[in-house]
Each structure stands twice: as C-alpha cells, then as structure tokens.
Amino acid sequence: MNNNTHEENSHVVLGLVDQNGHSKSSEKIEDRPDITYGIDDVPPWYLCIFMALQHYLTMIGAIVSIPFILTPALCMREDDPARGHIISTMIFVTAIVTFIQNTFGCRLPIVQGGTISFLVPTLAILHLPQWQCPAEEQMNNMTSEERTELWQVRMRELSGAIAVSALVQVFIGVFGVVGVLLKYVTPLTIVPTVSLVGLSLFENAAEAASKHWGISVSTIIMLTVFSQCLSEVKVPGINYSKEEGFKIVWFNLFKLFPVLLTIMIMWGICGLLTLTEALPKGHPARTDVKLRILEDSSWFRVPYPGQWGTPTVSLSGVLGMLAGVLACTVESISYYPTTSKMCGAPPPPVHAINRGIAIEGLGTVLAGLWGSGNGTNTFGENVGAIGVTKVGSRRVIQYACALMLLQGIINKFGAVFIIIPEPVVGGIFCVMFGMIAAFGLSALQYVDLNSSRNLYIIGFSMFFSLVLPKWMVHNADAIRTGSDIVDSILTVLLSTSILVGGMLGCLLDNLIPGTPEERGLVAWGEQMKLVSEPTVHGEYNTFDFPVGMATLRRWKWTSYIPFMPTYHPKKKN
C-alpha cells in the first residue's frame, strides 16, 4: 500500500496525474515537450508563489508604459495622484479577467491585461477638437475640482467607447465567428494592423526619450544587452524541495526580467544624479519630480466600476475603438496555439478559442466600466516567460492573479511605477514599440515576398496609413459634412492608423487577384487550423470546464453552442 501511494505521488510530481486526479495516457506523456510543470500540474504552494511572482513582474514590465502615454492625453497634471489610481485599476482588472480566462475561458495559462493596441484609437479620439487639452495657462488657472473634471470627462468618454466596442469581441466569441473572421483577416491584413500599433507611437517615444537622450540611449543599450546578449547567461539562485532541501540552481535572470532589471538600474542611476545635483531642479530625469504622487496616494484603495463617473457613449468613439478590439482579437488567436504547445497541452479546440475571445471581450467591457482607460489583451511577454521557465501550470497563473489583486488594492504600489523618470520610460518605449512593429511584420513569413502584388499591398497599406492619420491630426476640422456626429466619426476613423492600414490591407488582399500560396493562405491556414472535435464522455480534457461537464454532456443541445466544451459543428449521425 505504501508503495502504491509513493508511486501515485510520483505520478503527480511527474505530471502523470492532473490536478483533478485523472490519469494521462503514456502516449501523451511521450509527446509532452521539455517542461517542468504542464498545464494541469499543480506545483507545491511555495513554488507557485515564487513562480507567480515571476509572471507578476513580467506583467508589470508590460503594463507600466501605458499610463505614461494615456495620462498626458487626458490633460492630467504630472503630479496628480490619480495617475497611480489608473495603473492600480489596470492591474486590478487584469487580476479579475486573467482568473476568469484561466479558469473558465480558453483555460490556457495566459495573462490578460492592458495593451498598447488601444492607445492608437484612444489618441485619435482625444485629438478631436472637443477633447484637446486647453492652453497651459488656462489649465493653471483652474481650481483643483475643475482640473479633476477636465480629465475625468475624457476618461468617461474613453470608458464608454471601450466597453461598447468590446461587445463586438464578445459577439465574435459567443457566436463562433472566429472561423469566418480568419477567412478575411489574412497575413497581409495583420501586417499593417499590428505593426502600425508600434510605428504610430514613434512620436510619443521620441517625446519621452528627448527629455534626456543620454539616459534614454543608456536605457536602450542596457535593455539590448540584457535581452539579446546575456539572455543565455545563468545566475545562481536558491531552490527548495522536500527531497533535496535547499540547493543552488542556475536560471536565466536576464532572459526573464530584462525590462525590470533595466528600469531598476537606470532608476538608480537617475537617483544618484539627483542626489549629486547633476541634474537641475525640475528636470524630468530627476527621481524627486513626481514624488508628490507617492506622498499623496493613500495606502489602500479598492477600484470600482464608474469610479470616474458614469461612462458616456459616442458613435465616433465606439467605431474608433473597434480598431483596437479587432487587432487584439487577431493577436490573441495567434497566441493560443503557441501557448498550448509550450505548456504541453493539445492544440486548443475551436470552442476554447471562441470562449477565450468572448472572455477577452468581457474583460475589455469590465476594463471600460472600471475606468482603466484601456482594454485587455493576451500578454506576449508572459507567453514568452512560459517558454523560458518551462512552467506552464494554470495554477501558477491563478496564484499570480491573487498577487495582482493585492497590488491593485494597495495604492502605493501603483504610485511607485508612475514616478519612474521619463527618459527611462522613453528608452523602454523605443525598444518596446519596435518589438510590437516587428511582431506584426513577422506575419510576412507566410506570404511570397517575391510577388510584386504582395509588395504593393504591404508598402501602400503601411505608408498611406501613416500619411493620412498624420494629416488628420493636424487638420482635425477638415471634414465638414454638415453633421457634427458624422464629422467626428469620419475624423476618428481616418485618424486611427491601425484601422486605415487594416482596412486597406484587407480590401486590397481580397480584391487584387492572387493565388492562395502567393497570399500565404495555405501556410497561414495550417498555423491557425481550428480543431472542432468535442471531448468524449469519461475522458479528461484540459479545455473542459472545471465543473459541470457531466451535466453539459447530458444536455445534447449544448453541442450546438460555439463556446461550450461539448460543441461539435459537424455531428455524425
């Protein structure tokens, strides 16, 4: 009996038994990639906390840049404590949405949080004449209450636009439109849409970096060295196990946390320059410029829906935000198969993808209602962390959600990230936005780049999508149809580069004649192949709901619902 118990425990450690006690077949284990903990494995609680901290820190490195672009466009003061409230709200919503996604959504160990993709339509909306910031002198003469209302009315406009536009993403997931969407959203649509997210923000990166080019360039060099040159260098750390006790282990520190290490070191250098008075008073690189944010922030604050007032809805805002929603939808779909493979799970079935997109849309609705000023999307950084750490356990991400929830409530933590010196953030922007652009360009691997047809579509859709929105920003009152509503709608749509680029790429690729191989549809179809086989009664499947599967299988009608684990579009008689 003791031998059997020992063997059973060994099976749990090795991943032969999942968290629900179901056995895994030997065939699946042989196909399992080189990972320490698979998707259904449950590491010891103390290891879960440590590994959850890694995902939490990786998430912070990805989300911290968003408020630095969002808050100035909202006309907020640089030392306004509400800047910390916004980032705390983002992290709080990230915790809620990530837990729902991991437990009931696509059930992959992914993190759902704020995304750069929504910044492009956000800036287009805030560049409308009615939302542009007043003159600096006029804002300085405002009372504290007037300054607060100045940015909150803009946040309410964004919140309503984000929440309502995300209902389209919910619709796509709930009604299984993903397959139809992928027929028209081809690689030549994805390239301009995603790459322009990074390219469109070059002015924001230049503005932040130009505050002190020496510090910004040093940040870029350090981040490049850490992420590209030292990525395979291992450093010692301490690990504990019941069998071996404490021992020294070697891990890829620079590969795991290049952004955070860079920020911490450069922040420290800025601190030294501040102490030695090498930087003049009030310089953006000084560490004491925004110290008031930390001092004025309360220790505890629970974000809640409508905290900035009731969201307002305008048609121009909703249609503009749709560009961010569609970009995030395509990006997340591309992450699902990669994540599944990394954590030793089978390819995600169509019902899991549908459910994942629906939950992501629901998460963006919640982000809008909570007033984060942003939506939600799959963090590519955390997907990469799974490949590096070889830990793809769903339970680890659930632990990370608890850490995020705690951080979202402890308001001082959010304020800490807001006071990072601006030139350091500018250096991070230069690398991060470049990587986003490169991620979009990576879809070119599927198409024939020797085809003049493809080169024409790529070149025109990307270049014109930078030209037109740039002109629209400087000529916001150029469109005069006689209707203010129509004027606002057309101005926002034509000012949103990712929407212009995506529409041009989609229209040209689907209208100009070309073979499937030339357009990259064959290779793309293999990559994005949707599996629609339902789970069989008695078999465990990692994409099933954690509870209620027996009931769902008894209800035969659930096999026709696209987001149910029992979904089977082609039922055999």
Helix/strand/pairing class, anyone?
A: mainly alpha
Oligomer: single chain
Largest sheet: 2 strands, antiparallel
| Structure summary, number of beta strands | 4
Taking the alpha carbons of the first and last residues, their distance comes to 46 Å
Low-confidence stretches: 1-31
Biggest sheet, spatial arrangement of strands: 1-4
Number of domains: 1
Mean pLDDT: 81
Structure annotation, total helices: 27
**What portion of residues is helical?**
55-70%
Radius of gyration: 24 Å
Principal-axis shape equals globular
Strand content: under 5%
Transmembrane segments: 53-74, 86-104, 158-178, 253-276, 399-420, 426-447, 454-473, 485-508
Subcellular location: Membrane
Protein name: Solute carrier family 23 member 2 isoform X5
GO cellular component, one term: plasma membrane
Report on this model:
The chain has 573 residues and is mainly alpha-helical. It has one domain. Helix content is 62%, strand content 3%. The strands form two sheets. Strands 1-4 form a two-stranded antiparallel sheet. Strands 2-3 form a two-stranded antiparallel sheet. A hairpin with a 3-residue loop joins strand 2 and strand 3. The longest helix has 31 residues. It is found in: Membrane. GO terms for molecular function: transmembrane transporter activity. This is Solute carrier family 23 member 2 isoform X5. InterPro entries: NCS2, Xan_ur_permease.
